[in-house]
Amino acid sequence: MASSSLGATTISNVMSYGAVGNGRADDSQAFLKAWKAACQGQATSATPVVYVPPKKTFLLSPLTFNGPCKSSRVYMLVSGNIVAPVKTGWSGNQKNVWIIFSNINGLVVKGKGVIDGQGSSWWPSRPCFNDPAN
């Protein structure tokens, strides 16, 4: 258990669950394992935190973070970068969404990291009347 500005916390660092963080290896399973540890771990007064460390880039395939969680609040602290596969990396994948948080109360996602859905690789194949937001 650690102490932070969130109060007492239990940290599930994605690196401890096998994430590589090089932007090329798929880190999805490590994120799901860290999520499960935070969400389904022992219910205590400590706030569970899934920690995405800085100076790393984590490639995530489409995935779902499922609840309910044992804690009334769970944090995802994004200090590093999370990126989606480019459009060609989705071939054969039936999902039309990238990251889903399902059946979770009290979810807080914060941090100074970047969550990059690689939207620019999709824009040419989805013409629209308005320019996409940058």
From TrEMBL:
GO biological process: carbohydrate metabolic process; cell wall organization
UniProt main location, coarse: secreted
UniProt cross-references to Pfam families, sorted A to Z: Glyco_hydro_28
The entry's keywords: Cell wall, Cell wall biogenesis/degradation, Glycosidase, Hydrolase, Secreted
Compartments, as annotated in UniProt: Secreted, Cell wall
GO molecular function: polygalacturonase activity
Gene3D superfamilies per the UniProt record, alphabetical: Single-stranded right-handed beta-helix, Pectin lyase-like
Keyword Cell wall biogenesis/degradation tagged: yes
Similarity annotation: Belongs to the glycosyl hydrolase 28 family.
Protein name: Polygalacturonase
